[in-house]
Amino acid sequence: MKKLLMGLLAAGLVLAMALPAMAFDSEFGAYWRTRAYIQKDFTGSDSGKLDTQLVDTRTRLFYTAVFSEDFKFVNAFEFNNTWGDTVGGDFGTDATTIFRIKHSYANFNLGQVNFLIGLMPRVLHRGFVFSDDFAGLAVTYKGEGFEIPFIWLKAYEGGTGHDMNDYDVDWYALKPNFKFGNVSLTPTLSRIYSKDAEKWGATSGNKELRIWMAGVDADVKIGAGSLWFTGIYEFGDFEKLPTAKSVDMKAYLLAVGGAFNAGPADIHGQIFYATGDDPNTEDYEAFLSPHLGSTGQSYYWAEIMGLGIFDNQASANSCADKISNIMAANLGVGFKFTDKMKLKADLWYAKLAEKNKAGDDELGTEIDVVLTYSLMKNLNLDLVAAYLFAGDATYKGANQEDPYELGTQLSFKF
Fold first, then answer.
1. 224 three-state secondary structure
2. Confidence (pLDDT) at 290
3. Cα(85)–Cα(79) distance, integer angstroms
4. Structural contact between residues 371 and 341, judged by C-beta atoms closer than 8 angstroms
5. How many Cβ atoms from other residues are within 10 Å of residue 406's Cβ?
6. What gap in Å lies between CA 357 and CA 187, rounded to an integer?
7. Percentage of the chain surpassing pLDDT 70?
């Protein structure tokens, strides 16, 4: 790892000296965290199968070459270690297998049109649909009070050879944004298409895939408060293997939330509902099922049921950050004791949208508490405690135990 980073730095210095005519400014940044946490009884029983106790570290390095106001070359690198593992966390700590290039893209403007081309991040519908990095492009026309991006996400490349393009999986999105005073509206139309989707792991088991999503995000600021809403309808059809029978897709998600700030205190909450599949109907009704391309979908919510700060795992039978077949409601408060210390407490209730085979739907009620203390500028310490009063849909049987989580995180960024 040390040799690789030194090599990257040396290559950058050589390039800067060898091309004096291409003068540019350099911007550097970083994000670092180390977490120590315990997760117990996440199966909902005392079996210990998912019990976890570990320490891990994540480092992200950011470098941007700024050639002008209209042309930037943006890069982000990441490497992760679990303390004591055999790929960089053991004695010696040298490893390259966990080094990742997260972002590497050109960002340039031609008149009122912005182009992002390469490996980049993107969020669609707050993460209910997509929040991840991808290879592709985004072309955005920017006007007065509005912008219209067209995004192509290359999900899977079928390869080279006769008819191999049939296995490509492509995702297209049109995501305009309009601002009217304190109101922001973002209608989005997406299409996932593949002539034969069986080769990609996320869509294996399907042949032709023709999925559409139409939705809107709305954000409103009202004095010291704010409100938001997301609504998405998913439709289209896909051919289910091995029979290649055509199945209609009919699913939706509704979410609403808000916050109100009153001096050092705030009140916040949200509710979301995502349909599940009813086995008694011919249509497929689960919102963004994993086998229909939900790779990249990521919406964090509760600490235990929704991944939270320690995103190693979620409690049994919860959808985690892949929001599907669930109804969840949250009410929380925050309080800033001093400029350096603040507390956030949240109450969550969640149930399945469609009952499981045993006829149960209650995942449970969860309490989360996070205390954040600023040790110095840019350096924060989080203390986290979470407890889930598990329902029968989490686990039903002998030796039932409620999941809980305790942990701490030290982080900084610049």
1. coil
2. 75
3. 14
4. yes
5. 16
6. 37
7. 92
